[in-house]
């Protein structure tokens, strides 16, 4: 007997139906739902601890999205044959949901909270990631966990000139705008996407249409909550408070903090002065008490002092238009860049903006270097990779190197999507491309430095990108009480940390190629969003102008030490001949030349890719393959190699893999009684193809027909070499 749950079904706006079910699965979680569209089903659960851990003054929220291979009828690859750590794709979806949910938890809620979204059934043409935010928010909405939602997420794409909500996998391939949006009923909370040089106004239109779809999904969640019976949100007290201490810190330290903030100093100088002011107050308070401060009081001192720093910085910007490093709201920090810095790399660039620096390399590879994507929903190969590294020394810190975290995966993905839009197609660029950005200094917007350095390094490598790409991170300071706000261009790390928005926009001089926005308030109005996009456009063009002082277009040729790739199309029936029995022929070519050869069947043809570090090796392989694929023609003259000598003649390889018999009578106009001393194995000779046996396919060759016919003697006897 099946358990009956409570289900809310709604139309997403174009006749396609989505259902949200609760009360059937995972009932011990604080909240759980199953979202279904077509055959795609997501199970979302949320659990939050009843109490916060001692000393925790933030929200320990974890969001994990995972796709079960069984959902798509597949068995995982690898040795263990089971789901392991999250793939980069799953990490990216987890981040999208996390960034949408996190701003809407109460600021004083600090209990460990875990959201898990699992793909339990897959529809090949419905992308589950567009439903993950809806599922997570619905699970929170039917729970007793404090949450200022609901919210939802949608994918908005422009396909064949029309905007589509949550398009099918097949239709998405034709999109020139693709964005994931998250929002509340009132405002946009998060966005991330890629575009083929679209305008800012086109972006705004996409956001408006996507937001209307989000409102439909929010209404459905509220109706589901009513059907379930609205739960009272749990009561909690996760923060120690000392309002007298808070007031004293504000009164005694605000002016000093404001003075430091306004001094326009560097990150390290400013940090040292802020810390010294805080430590001086703690020492004073300790002296007054006559004993060391307890952990709670010390923690409150640091917390309230941080709040003073935040208020001073924000008020300074809103009231005076002055920022921590002395810039106005629209100024971009000083920029310098250099290409070709690393002599052995195929392409390299250093891009420095203020106290943020990226050293980026480009490596060109062959087909064998493609990345295998083995996921539950997607299986295939990737030819463009971008990896972003953020070592601890870039911020003057010490921490173990544990490999890339979620932040590194997300930043690298944004830069990859931004640069992907300007790459040449495969006919112009047969290479696998790997870009690696190593952040050497960081004080805000290192992902945008990666985009700029990546474009410079691609041009240095000789990759014919359509246009250079730059990126800029925009910030926001918003006072909800007064409605005053300031949009900041090229934000510092502190402005990201203490501000209300991190809005990254990338693009060429013609339009936007990528974007990513996170906000810390409960939404962003279209008025502010429009202003931020226009200010970002101006900043982006300024950065492009600075980049153009270093290099304006791709180099005419690849570096001398860069590998060369030649592609050939051959008739499909010759693929086996090039590979040879057990791979003998292709392996021998690779051994002799040092080149890497790959063959892929494409329709009626075989696409052969030859990859080598020098032109001579490529030319040798091309010659051999042309020989194998050439159809011998009767009457044609070939240069052959003697392979084997028999008493009745010699076998000559006149095309790669094709031997013909040169009979003893066809070697010369002279008569030879024996083959001894006439020809040698390995000797190069010219021969003519006389005939092909129709039954056996054997080739008949002649050398003598290419030699001058000797004059006859008076006796009309043929010439002989006998005495």
TrEMBL record:
Q: Which reaction does it catalyse?
A: RNA(n+1) + phosphate = RNA(n) + a ribonucleoside 5'-diphosphate
Name where it's found: Cytoplasm
Query: What are its E.C. numbers?
Result: 2.7.7.8
Keyword Transport (UniProt): no
- SUPFAM superfamilies reported in the protein's UniProt record: Eukaryotic type KH-domain (KH-domain type I), Nucleic acid-binding proteins, Ribonuclease PH domain 2-like, Ribosomal protein S5 domain 2-like
SMART domains recorded for this chain?
KH (SM00322), S1 (SM00316)
Gene Ontology terms, MF aspect: 3'-5'-RNA exonuclease activity; magnesium ion binding; polyribonucleotide nucleotidyltransferase activity; RNA binding
A family per Pfam: PNPase
What is one GO biological process annotated to this record? RNA processing
Cofactor dependency? Mg(2+)
Question: Gene3D superfamilies annotated for this entry?
Answer: GHMP Kinase, N-terminal domain (3.30.230.70), K Homology domain, type 1 (3.30.1370.10), Nucleic acid-binding proteins (2.40.50.140)
Biological function: Involved in mRNA degradation. Catalyzes the phosphorolysis of single-stranded polyribonucleotides processively in the 3'- to 5'-direction.
Q: What is the protein name stated in its UniProt record?
A: Polyribonucleotide nucleotidyltransferase
The upper taxonomy is: Bacteria, Pseudomonadati, Bacteroidota, Sphingobacteriia, Sphingobacteriales
Query: What gene, per UniProt, encodes this protein?
Result: pnp
